[in-house]
């Protein structure tokens, strides 16, 4: 069965979870069969039966928020072969030479698969190596400093032997190679260097505990597009706004991949409209509300601007879809059992510059946040259709005088309001690895943190379904 390599985003658990939810859906049925902190290996059930499966992969890439690239796998090298070819300490030189010859033979074979035409062509390629873990000593000291140069010169030599007029490769900064601190090329590089063209390619070497998957990038995310919509819209709050990628991931957690244009999605804390904007771009019918009139007006202005930029028709009666509403009155302003899903980031509390004391944090939770989230679930149950989902963010607060973070009992609130928690990761779908860093603590994971180091208020994602 043919396999595909998916390059994961910064939060690999979140990316894995989003990808797995997509692979449970009818259009893209499949399973993750291997993974690291940087890649996932996928086998599809029926996708390859479609004559235009590449188009479907491009649609999947477009839908996914946490996937940087998709590559088609051409071959595999066992981890034992890699270690024998490039040991930490070189002792048995004849064995090293013999094992490296095996790798060269594999490269010789796959290059005919990667490049449709080689003879008399000017070929340019970039070699991207995704390690099991970036802080692995073997990656820093051996893969970057020895394996990468071996691949670049080896591939270039083979291409010339096959008749290429030129065989040039992307050169990484030498200072990064010397320091052992090197990232593979990013999606914007793939676009910039036109590496999806027939005579140009990004050749990916994705490493897991099992070995190296070799393949060519087929599709890539377009971060420039997301950045333009996010940063150039007329109204934006830079301090604490949810990111476009996280918005798209949350929308995908609703598991609505068929007939998207018919699906009605609500964000009841619309803010300046990030979720609404990218929901529209992802083909949903978006609705929104907020207690602040200014926020609703900002969202409407941003949507009108984005639709104009994308040369899409404006939404008729947009003020009937985006309203000033207190969360307590949501079901009075929108019809009951009207929505196919809710995606939202509610009020997470004040924007702290320094960690609060425990007593201040508890007061915030008990007097402001807990009642707010109780109302969210009460109202969501009324306006959501049966079996529909709500994906929301809840705050986890780091306090000054306690080693434990403050958090609310979100799952208990949801259950009390007739919502069942949906696992974001399950051992039945994604098998644990032997490395402890890559393991999941439980057989079912019902929430995933999305936070940068040192953040005082961290985002935690939850997914629930109306019973």
Strand order of the largest sheet: 2-3-1-4-8-7-5-6
Helix/strand structural class? alpha/beta
CATH topology of the largest domain: Rossmann fold
CATH class division of the largest domain: Alpha Beta
Report the CATH superfamily of the largest domain: Vaccinia Virus protein VP39
Structure, explained:
The chain has 467 residues and is α/β, with parallel strands linked by helices. The protein has 2 domains: 4-221, VC0802-like; 224-466, Vaccinia Virus protein VP39 (Rossmann fold), CATH 3.40.50.150. Helix content is 36%, strand content 24%. It contains 14 helices and 18 strands. It has helices spanning 12-23, 53-63, 79-85, 93-114, 137-161, 174-179, 187-192, 223-232, 244-252, 274-281, 293-309, 330-333, 358-383, 410-416; strands at 4-8, 30-35, 39-44, 67-78, 122-130, 166-169, 200-207, 211-220, 264-267, 285-290, 322-324, 339-344, 384-397, 419-421, 425-426, 444-445, 447-450, 457-466. Strands 2-3-1-4-8-7-5-6 form an 8-stranded mixed β-sheet. α11 links the parallel β10 (285-290) and β11 (322-324). α3 crosses α4 (93-114), α4 packs across α5 (137-161) and α9 (244-252) packs across α10 (274-281). The longest helix is centred in the C-terminal third of the chain and has 26 residues, at 358-383. It starts with a strand and ends with a strand.
């Amino acid at each position: 069965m043919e396999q595909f390599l998916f390059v994961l985003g910064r939060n690999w658990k979140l990316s894995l979870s989003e990808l797995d939810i997509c692979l449970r859906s009818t259009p893209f049925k499949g399973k993750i069969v291997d993974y690291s902190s940087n890649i996932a290996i996928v086998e599809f059930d029926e996708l390859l039966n479609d004559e235009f499966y590449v188009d479907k992969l491009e649609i999947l890439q477009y839908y996914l928020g946490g996937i940087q690239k998709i590559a088609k796998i051409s071959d595999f090298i066992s981890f034992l072969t890699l270690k024998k070819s490039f040991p930490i300490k070189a002792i048995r030189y004849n064995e090293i030479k013999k094992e490296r010859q095996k790798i060269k033979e594999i490269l010789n074979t796959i290059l005919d698969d990667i490049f449709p035409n080689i003879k008399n062509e000017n070929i340019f390629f970039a070699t991207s190596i995704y390690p099991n873990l970036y802080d692995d000593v073997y990656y820093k000291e051996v893969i970057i400093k020895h394996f990468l140069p071996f691949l670049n010169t080896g591939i270039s030599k083979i291409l010339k032997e096959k008749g290429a007029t030129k065989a040039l490769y992307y050169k990484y900064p030498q200072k990064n190679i010397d320091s052992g601190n090197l990232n593979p090329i990013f999606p914007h590089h793939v676009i910039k260097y036109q590496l999806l063209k027939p005579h140009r390619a990004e050749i990916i070497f994705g490493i897991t505990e099992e070995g190296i998957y070799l393949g060519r990038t087929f599709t890539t995310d377009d971060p420039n597009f997301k950045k333009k919509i996010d940063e150039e819209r007329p109204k934006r709050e830079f301090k604490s706004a949810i990111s476009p990628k996280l918005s798209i991931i949350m929308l995908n957690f609703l598991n609505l991949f068929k007939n998207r244009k018919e699906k009605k999605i609500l964000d009841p804390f619309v803010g300046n409209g990030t979720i609404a904007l990218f929901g529209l771009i992802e083909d949903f019918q978006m609705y929104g509300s907020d207690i602040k009139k200014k926020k609703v007006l900002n969202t409407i202005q941003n949507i009108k601007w984005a639709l104009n930029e994308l040369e899409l028709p404006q939404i008729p009666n947009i003020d009937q879809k985006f309203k000033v509403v207190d969360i307590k009155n949501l079901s009075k302003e929108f019809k009951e059992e009207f929505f196919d899903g809710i995606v939202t980031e509610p009020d997470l509390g004040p924007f702290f510059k320094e960690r609060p004391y425990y007593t201040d944090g508890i007061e915030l939770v008990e007097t402001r946040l807990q009642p707010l989230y109780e109302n969210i679930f009460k109202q969501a149950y009324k306006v959501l259709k049966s079996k529909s989902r709500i994906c929301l963010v809840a705050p986890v607060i780091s306090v000054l005088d306690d080693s434990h973070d403050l958090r609310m009992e979100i799952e208990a609130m949801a259950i009390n309001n007739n919502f069942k928690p949906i696992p974001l990761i399950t051992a039945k779908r994604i098998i644990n690895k032997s490395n402890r860093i890559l393991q999941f603590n439980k057989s079912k994971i019902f929430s995933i943190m999305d936070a940068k180091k040192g953040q005082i208020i961290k985002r935690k994602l939850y997914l629930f379904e109306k019973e």
